[in-house]
Specification:
It comes from Cyanidium caldarium. There is one protein chain. This protein has about 1300 residues and is of the alpha+beta class. The chain has 22 helices and 57 strands.
Length: about 1300
């Protein structure tokens, strides 16, 4: 019942009738006493045919091509034609509808087991009103699914892909962790039910139920994934406090002697609900998504109830709510942050705001190690909490959590386990008292504990169980009707003497056996949650179950670690796909040919050159279809991930020496996990896909808001950049201290705040330079904040809020200076296609600055740390920088005029400006990247309040918003002739080589518009270190138009060939693509580590020709999709051909038409499938054949031919043997499938279908008369001609000629039955 709406109880047993054009479910709940009894549902279905008066009146009709509808028995003849019954099934619970490659399937639970009970208010009315005080409490049964079955909801035939796609999903559903109740609401906590709050985050099968529609969803159960367990506890009541020592032992007899009240039994139930938001497996699902949903988020409720009292305590667990991942490494990948501070801060605040709305106040308990590989996560978590609690100068917001940081492995290692855990509890008990527990309807729980470690499994389970044990004392006291003062729990002291611990004996105490049962209950809960996330039981389970570590527990943990490593490589990817399929994040790729009605879904174009990078780092080959409404990513496992066309928000590019060309796509909304990580073999393939994607999506909103570009010319954007620095170790606290202008004063777009030395009193977690009142007026958002430890340099980069969505590829790094407490902090970002890098700190001259930049890991690792940026700034107390080689290599400042008067086309610009207080700024701009000083601002170097100097205040011209498919593609190429290197100085790794040793050199070129990564052939071995390449080298480009080449800056790198190792880098250079067709000589500086190590010279010219063989239609109609698909693909192909036509290879490439291609399964995935098949064979699991998948298990038999069946769907039969077999169950044979007991006597209405197997699960007993074989169970004849059913009670007689006939046997007695 939700929101006052009456929800009809779903049936607990039903018959499934397979018809030619529909499926009919017939309710037979009133005939089943206990659904957990083997074959109870099957027997109830049989008894439905005994008498018309015993039929149930509810029917659910599911037509294949129409909406489902309910009917009653009077309208049964109209609902379907009984003469067209193809077969029958039986089910216990309806889970929903799952679409497989051949079509939709009904998902049924055919076997369930009792897991426990949960309390329900017996006085609650059907209108959802709260029950009155002292309403009796009853226990509602909770069941766990143990076997499921698919039933076809379409008229086609099953395909092999149906079994392949559903195999992992079936394993997950049958794993024993899917729970439901016919009477109680497991989805919501008791407190939410009392308050009438809604919430469906834990309704696990909601995506499966929604396709049923409003009229049929009441037939489906509301299931949760997690754990449910119930125990009975005898409790004792005490009155006085006692003093115990570590040498005394409390026994059950002692407790009984001191008990003042008789033993009373209470029921304790633990219910854990796993959220379906961002659900997944270990390594594949980490951190938070853009909507604030975290991985492995579980709500655990501890219920204590008696027939007249109910109390509940709720705690939650979930992954650290920042963007992070674990992909690098084979055994134990180190965690790494995977998103900018700005994106993480948004998701972090959304997550805790949602917790505040659901639970009230929050205490966040972090058990992550403070050093080692987990330290970055601990620092990021603490930093976001600090930002949340200091968002303004006033009080922290209500949703901001109280943060408790506790290094579990440090404080609870070895013999320090008890002392460490007591120390943690002493920090949490005050909050536990403040939050309280739910007590009937008199008292509500006002807050929640959010506990996490890295996996949120092992350490989290130990702390949660300890908190639950403390809450249990209060719950048991309330169950006995004690007051709050009497129910007060004991106080734990971490500083108690080693031999005597003074404790106040609680008013209610458990017996030793009850305490063991309670700890085992929580141990089972920990194991269940660990199995779902990591594939093994929980580690440190000996702590949870016994409260101490043991050698056996350590050995078990080692084995579990090995199994988890195996699961990471061979199991978790399949389980993750099952999660995605069941929760609606992925759909099964259809194998049915598209009809003319679905012409709008014909792909506009397709790509088969990309790989999708899964959450765990695995690369999966995919085919990407751009359809009318969504981007469809299809895998080799027949799964399809759909992203809405209008949800593309941002993209990022990433390249490196050890990684190929990656593209990250960010989508808005929570329909799909974001970002989508793709990898391409070449930069041109990535660029071609990106252009097509942006043109298809119509995401021109990736361009900047017009308000940011009031005076920018067409094709260029202007961004105001400001860099400010302080000169002392006094750190500003507010935005006004930093001199940030108000919104009415046209604030800068990007602001970098540099704090050379934050001092020991500076703000922690890298936030020393960040104003505390940053969000006071909502003008800026923090993109990145970084600081050195122990009061070193700090820097914060802010972006105006209306331009924040255009920021991407944020990287940050810090480098400590040698023999100094300070150093350098670097932050890089890309904005509107322009790469910016800010560096700040306290250094001692040019040598330290250049050395620190070489060590700072920002930007693309394969490019020069300074030359790769469009604009680079270094500010702070940097020392004397007049000797920086960049100043001599690129003299002069850029022109302050328009882009047309930009710096020389082949050179960059670098300048150094020193101001008062030893502060200075060094800035560098790439060739063709102009900047203009802000004429409205005061002079550069002005000093604001608190000794703050504004070192930079200028406009930089950004590139165009995003690439587009051109209407007039061009073939463009840069021709380099007579390329040579002079005055070369080898870097230190090669300086030891003698000057007369011949070496070979080659030059590699890189740019996103290049069709392919090109390099010169190795030069001839020369001893004079003057390599040259006579002739002409052609660099083919892939531009949208000629104007785009004006922005192209090509990066070149000179390498020397190392015969015995990796080739060494000699230096880097950059040049702007010339726009003249005539040949022009050039000479460029070659830099390595910021030092000039040589000169590169030659002659270059540009060759451009337009491609005439293009369709006449304009691409302005591209967003119309289907009708433009042919023309659009031709234009894309023309771009590809035109670019390749000018390449050095001279071989034009054809655009790949991947619309009909299928994703290729990688070799690694094939090995995984093989390992999985072997594991299934070892476990004895066999899948159903394709011919019978989704069809009826049992044929109609005599049912369809009887007059009674045609008229009223009932066949009159005596009960006979069925009554005696209703509690008998035949377990699976070698095939792993059950064989149900059949009706004896005359015909049957529930017979088996033909199964193509040679196995016969039959129980026989020898007979002494006439060679007869007595059979007590139905068996299958494997003859393909005419399968027949031998009914229970038949005997086979063999005559003299070997012919076998069947005859009916007298009704069996109980002595004739063979029990199992």
């Amino acid at each position: 019942m939700e929101g006052g709406t009456v929800v009809r109880r779903p049936p607990c047993a039903f018959r499934v009738l397979h018809c030619a054009d529909r499926i009919v479910l017939e309710d037979c709940s009133d005939l089943v006493v206990d659904v957990c009894v083997p074959n109870a549902v099957v027997d109830a279905v049989n008894r439905m045919s005994a008498a018309a008066a015993r039929r149930c009146g509810r029917l659910l009709v599911l037509p294949f091509r129409a909406a489902p509808f309910e009917s009653d028995s009077a309208a049964a003849a109209e609902a379907y034609d009984a003469s067209r019954i193809l077969g029958m099934d039986a089910g216990t619970a309806l889970l929903g509808v799952l679409t497989l490659p051949s079509g939709p399937y009904l998902l049924l639970a055919t076997e369930v087991k009792r897991a426990g009970t949960v309390p329900v208010w017996t006085g609650a009315g059907e209108d959802g009103a709260r029950p009155p005080h002292n309403t009796p409490v009853a226990g509602a049964a909770v069941y766990v699914v143990s076997r499921v079955r698919f039933v076809k909801l379409h008229g086609g035939s099953a395909v092999r892909a149906d079994r392949d796609v559903s195999a992992a999903a079936v394993k997950m559903l049958e794993s024993g962790f899917l729970f439901f109740s016919f009477e109680a609401d497991l989805v919501r906590t008791q407190q939410k039910q009392l308050s009438g709050s809604r919430g469906n985050a834990f309704w696990w099968n909601k995506p499966l139920v929604m396709p049923l529609g409003a009229s049929a969803c009441g037939w489906a159960v509301r299931a949760v994934m997690g754990y449910v367990g119930t125990i009975e506890l005898p409790i004792y009541r005490h009155r006085e406090a006692t003093t115990t020592t570590t040498t005394t032992t409390t026994t059950a007899a002692t407790m009984e002697e001191t008990a003042d009240a008789p033993v009373q039994t209470v029921y304790v139930t633990v219910v854990s609900r796993k959220s379906r938001r961002r659900a997944g497996t270990r390594y594949n699902s980490r951190g938070v998504d853009q909507c604030g949903h975290v991985a492995n988020f579980v709500e655990t409720e501890q219920l204590v109830y008696t027939p007249h009292h109910l109390s509940a305590f709720v705690s939650v667990r979930g992954s650290i709510p920042v963007f992070w991942k674990q992909t690098k490494g084979t055994l134990r990948p180190a965690p790494e942050l995977d998103g900018s501070m700005m994106l993480s801060e948004q998701a972090f605040s959304q997550h805790f705001k949602a917790l505040s709305r659901s639970y009230g106040k929050c205490t966040a308990v972090s058990l992550v190690n403070l050093d080692g590989s987990e330290a970055p996560l601990a620092l990021a978590y603490a930093r976001h909490v600090d930002m949340a609690r200091t968002r303004s100068t006033g009080q922290p917001p209500l949703w901001a959590p109280r943060f408790v940081e506790f290094d579990f492995h440090h404080h609870c290692s070895g013999r320090e386990y008890d002392r460490g855990l007591c120390a943690l509890m002493s920090r949490l008990l005050n909050d536990l008292d403040a939050y309280g527990v739910l007590v009937d309807e008199r008292q509500l729980q006002s807050g929640v504990f959010r506990v996490n470690c890295v996996d949120c499994l092992d350490r989290t389970g130990v702390v949660q169980s300890t908190l639950a044990k403390q809450a249990l004392q209060r719950q048991l006291a309330y169950a006995l009707g004690l007051t709050a003062m009497e129910a007060e729990a004991p106080t734990l002291s971490a500083d108690a003497d080693a031999t005597t611990a003074v404790q106040w004996t609680p008013a209610v105490q458990l017996s030793p056996d009850s305490e063991v049962s309670f700890m085992r209950l929580w141990g089972s809960n920990a194991d269940a949650l660990a199995y779902q996330y990591a594939g093994t039981g929980a580690m440190k389970s000996d702590m949870t179950r016994t409260g101490k570590r043991s050698t056996r527990g350590l050995l078990h943990d080692g084995f579990k670690s090995a199994v988890r490593i195996f699961n990471k490589h061979f199991v978790d990817d399949d389980r993750q796909e099952a999660y995605d399929l069941l929760l609606g994040y992925a759909s099964a790729a259809s194998t049915v040919a598209e009809s003319s009605a679905a012409a709008a879904d014909v792909p506009w174009t397709s790509f088969d050159t990309a790989q999708m990078i899964a959450g765990g780092g695995e690369r999966v080959h995919v085919v990407i279809h751009l359809k009318s409404a969504e981007l469809a990513v299809r895998t080799a496992e027949h799964l399809e991930y759909d992203y809405r066309r209008d949800s593309l928000a941002q993209y990022e590019k990433e390249s490196g020496r050890r990684i190929k060309h990656r593209l990250r796509l960010f989508f808005s909304g929570a329909h799909q996990p974001s970002p989508l990580d793709l990898q391409f073999h070449t930069a041109s393939a990535r660029e071609l896909f990106l252009r097509t994607l942006i043109t298809w999506s119509g995401s021109y909103a990736l361009a900047l808001p017009p308000s940011l570009l009031p005076h920018a010319p067409a094709g260029a954007f202007r961004v105001q950049v400001r860099v400010a620095s302080v000169g002392q170790s006094i750190w500003p606290a507010t935005a006004a201290d930093w001199g940030l202008p108000q919104s009415s004063k046209n604030p800068p777009t990007v602001v970098a705040l540099v704090l050379p030395d934050s001092g020991p009193a500076g703000r922690r977690f890298g936030l020393a330079a960040l104003p505390r009142d940053l969000d006071a007026d909502g003008l800026y958002r923090c993109v990145a904040a970084r600081a050195l430890p122990q009061g070193g340099a700090a820097m914060a980069v802010l972006v105006r809020i209306d331009a924040a969505d255009a920021v991407s590829e944020v990287r940050e790094s810090s480098v400590a200076a040698e023999n100094s407490l300070s150093g350098l902090v670097a932050v890089s970002l890309r904005m509107y296609g322009t790469a910016l890098c800010f560096c700040g700190g306290a250094l001692r001259g040019a040598s330290e600055l250049l050395a620190a930049m070489q060590s700072a890991h920002v930007g693309r690792t394969e490019l020069d740390p300074i030359l790769q940026w469009d604009h680079w700034y270094a500010a702070g107390v940097l020392g004397h920088l007049a000797a920086v080689p960049l100043l001599a290599a690129f003299p002069g400042a850029p022109n302050d005029d328009h882009l047309a008067a930009a710096p020389p086309p082949y050179g960059a610009a670098c300048e150094w400006v020193a101001t008062a207080g030893q502060r200075s700024v060094l800035r560098w701009s790439a060739p063709g990247r102009a900047r203009v000083n802000n004429s409205a601002a005061e002079a550069i170097g002005r000093v604001e309040a608190r000794d703050i100097a504004v070192l930079v205040d200028e406009y930089v011209y950004a590139l165009r918003c995003g690439p587009q498919i051109p209407q007039q593609p061009v073939a463009a190429a840069v021709h380099l002739e007579n390329l040579r290197v002079s005055r070369l100085q080898l870097p230190p790794p090669a300086a030891h080589l003698a000057s007369d040793i011949p070496l070979q050199f080659y030059v590699a070129f890189a740019h996103d518009l290049l069709v392919e990564a090109l390099a010169t052939p190795p030069s001839h071995p020369i001893p004079d270190r003057r390599p040259r390449w006579p002739g002409r080298l052609t660099l083919p480009f892939l531009p949208s138009d000629v104007a785009e080449l004006e922005d192209a800056v090509v990066h070149g790198q000179l390498f020397y060939v190392e015969p015995l190792g990796e080739d060494g880098l000699c230096g880097s250079f950059v040049f702007r693509v010339p726009m003249e067709a005539s040949a022009r000589p050039f000479e460029l500086p070659l830099l390595h580590g910021g030092n000039v190590v040589g000169r590169v010279s030659g002659v270059m010219r540009l060759g451009v020709r337009r491609v005439e063989s293009l369709p006449s239609s304009s691409l302005s109609s591209m967003p119309g999709m289907a009708r433009s698909s042919t023309d659009a693909r031709a234009n894309v192909g023309a771009v590809d051909d035109a670019a390749l036509a000018g390449s050095s290879a001279g071989t034009p490439g054809a655009w790949p038409d991947a619309s009909g291609s299928a994703a290729r399964r990688s070799g690694k995935r094939r090995v995984k499938k093989l390992v999985g098949s072997i594991a299934d064979w070892v476990r004895g699991e066999r899948r159903e054949s394709t011919a019978t998948f989704g069809g009826p298990r049992y044929g109609a038999g005599g049912y369809a031919g009887s007059a009674g069946a045609r008229s009223g769907m009932v066949v009159e039969e005596p009960l006979g043997l069925t009554h005696q077999l209703q509690n008998t169950h035949l377990q699976a044979g070698a095939g792993g499938r059950e064989r149900a007991a059949w009706r004896a006597e005359t015909g049957t209405a529930f017979g088996p279908e033909a199964v193509p197997t040679n196995e016969e699960d039959e129980v026989t007993a020898s007979s002494a008369a006439d060679g007869a074989v007595e059979t007590g169970w139905a068996t299958f004849d494997d003859s393909p001609a005419a399968p027949r059913v031998r009914l229970a009670g038949e005997t086979d007689e063999t005559d003299a000629e070997g012919r076998t006939t069947s005859r009916a046997k007298a009704p069996a007695t109980s002595n004739d039955l063979i029990r199992f």
